[in-house]
Amino acid sequence: MWLGMTLLVCIAVVSVGLALYINKISDTLPTDDEILAYRANEASIVYDRKGRVITELYVENRKPMKLEQFSKWMVMSILAAEDSQFYSHKGIRPLAILRSLFSGEGGQGASTITQQLARNLFLSSEKSLDRKAKEAIISLHMERLYSKDKLLETYLNAIYFGHGAWGIDAAAHSYFNKSASDLTLGEASILAGLVAAPEKYSPIRNMSLAKARQNYVLNRLVHLDWITREEANAAAQEQLKFNERTEKSKLAFNKAPYFVSHILFKELIPVYGSDKIYKGGMRIYTTLDLDVQQAAEESMEKLKSEGGLVALDPTDGAVLALVGGKDFEQSKFNRVTQAFRQSGSAFKPIVYAAALEAGYRPIDHIMDTPISLRVPNSSGPAWTPHNFSETYVGEETLLNALAHSHNTPAVRLTYMLGPMNVVETARRMGISSPYLTPTLSVGLGVASVTPLEMAVVYSVFANNGSRVEPYFVREIRSREGKVLQQNSPKITEALQPGTAMIARSMLQEVIRAGTGSKARLAGFEMFGKTGTTNDYTDAWFAGGVPGLVAVVYAGNDDLKPLGGKNATGSHVALPVWSSFIRSAVKILETPQVFPRELSDEESGVRVMRVCVESGFPASPECKKVTNIYMPADRIPTAPCPLHAEGAAEMEDSNAPQLLLLDQDKTDLEAVKKDEELLVSQDQLPIFDPSQIPPPVPPPPDLPPAEGNSTGSWRDYIKKDDRSVEERYQELLKKYNIQ
């Protein structure tokens, strides 16, 4: 009797103690509401404009699927390997736990699928009785709250398979580059074998251990009579084809690293935060075209130096391709958006656009001769710009001066217009660089700008004067499909349509017969401009075809010269641009001719067949002939005085004008060359040189820079001496995405 009483007391004490223990640990466990509210981390997916995956952003690479979507072999293999009695128990198996305890395993290794799920979602992997007890309690709650199918589905989407893959579908893509719905028995049994120890049994790291574990899974399936021995043998001998990219990390942006990095740190994380981007299952639809991007990447491989390439749709500003460097792993520095470099002669079209706005015409004449200019009220030395070739052609049309990139006409135009007017035109057309200042040399492209800014500028020529704001992301949706953000084109007028059309026709002459002639593509109307800076440190080509504008920049990050006298825009950047354009027009199926969207009356311009040398209407005898747009009411009618047979002098109020500075007039009078002018000085344009705004004096001399000096403004700007890689890693740390 006393023995019975003692036993009852002991049972009561143990029961009370167990109740108190359960009550104590229950305070730290998730409530039913918290269990029901659980949402697994889900990768955000970045798509191109055609809905193709560019990359996935994740902390846990997870692709949730419905239970009925999984391959039957996958479901059977998991159940056989981990919990064949899953549909029979209530969440825990007490006898299995007791057996494990008495065997000295401390309850470990006896976990049901529900217990594993509870541990994965709400607990740590600490091996202790406390954790095992909590695991059992949560499992019982989950079995009460969810159906068996829902628990299994959640489990299949939650467990870790190694190499950054969470959930079976992510694992299927990671290991076999296929959906979990398409897994074979051989593949499924390999994946099911990973659950116990993903890194240990990884077929990427140890195939022999992976095969041994696969055999265990297949034997379990046979033992359960779920498959035949013949099926098991066939699965074991199946030739497995693994995905070569299994070990790519979450920051290895596979297909457009510079593009993704730009939108990540400029648009996504600052607005939504890193947690939402890397765990929230967002769907990010971009403007990028993967086919065009691939063409850009392949074309950039031709470049020996570093550089960048960007391509825009000029009608709306959509960024179709962006290559910020030759190797993202080697350098995170984005040369399209972050590299401020002198653009050289690629800037000149802005000067000519300003001249057209001021009333000058492509057929007007200007001097290409040596010139020295002194800033008024300045004691500094006179500035004497030179042509690249150190040769001068004398009098020429503006059309010819731009086509052959002569420097002294651009400087003369800058002086006539006033540097501030050139700067204001550049700002309207898309240059936002802080380094753009109104000095006489601004017309030669000494201001440092980015390739993206130049792409915006050249889009103005392509779309009849409208400035587009480049955009990268079209739409962002939540994992539930709710629209979080939509971006539409932002377009403003930068130039009058007629002005832009005239400027584009002048740039088409650059391609037809000027410095960009190597870029010609049969059947296509094209426009563009080369750019080369002093000491050959930077080389550019910017231009476009109907429906596409692209800019290529080439240069070394340490500012070392690209080479000798052949390291020009036409020799270095143009071949890359041309290679890209030839591929892109096929991919995009762009029109071959710029559409005439406005009538002559609406645009105020019409086509003129012109003699490039004289600027007069071309005669059959003229050798250099082209078509350009001209103000409709300012087209001359007199025959070409240089080439037309028997051309008699005749009055023509629209005849080309000769644009002269006071210095030019003095020089001409000194050598008595008046009689050699194509147009009488009486026909000079009406402007008073005394009213030309004085150029802004150059900045005062700066103190010598410490350390090595290149003699460039870059020696004096505020520097961050850390490497780009160090700054990039700091950015990752800032947003907690290490």
Q: Quaternary arrangement of the chains shown?
A: single chain
Can you tell me the residue ranges where pLDDT is under 50 for at least 5 consecutive residues? 12-25, 104-108, 247-253, 673-720
Helix content: 25-40%
Structural class call reads alpha+beta
CATH topology of one domain: Penicillin binding protein transpeptidase fold
Q: Please give the CATH architecture of one domain.
A: Orthogonal Bundle
Describe it for me?
- The chain has 738 residues and is an alpha+beta fold.
- It has a domain at 21-47 and 60-237: Biosynthetic peptidoglycan transglycosylase-like (Penicillin binding protein transpeptidase fold, Orthogonal Bundle).
- The two termini are 68 Å apart.
- The model is unreliable at 12-25, 104-108, 247-253 and 673-720 (pLDDT under 50).
Secondary-structure blueprint:
Layout: H1 2-26, H2 32-36, E1 44-47, E2 53-57, E3 61-62, H3 72-82, H4 94-102, H5 113-122, H6 129-145, H7 148-158, E4 165-166, H8 168-176, H9 185-192, H10 207-223, H11 229-237, H12 257-272, H13 274-279, E5 283-286, H14 290-300, E6 307-312, E7 319-323, E8 341-342, H15 348-357, E9 365-368, E10 394-397, H16 398-403, H17 407-417, H18 419-429, E11 448-449, H19 451-462, E12 466-468, E13 473-477, E14 483-486, E15 491-493, H20 497-513, E16 527-532, E17 538-545, E18 548-555, H21 569-588, H22 600-603, E19 605-611, E20 625-631, E21 658-659, H23 662-671, H24 724-734
Helix pairs in contact: 3-9, 3-10, 5-6, 5-7, 9-10, 9-11, 10-11, 14-21, 15-17, 15-18, 15-20
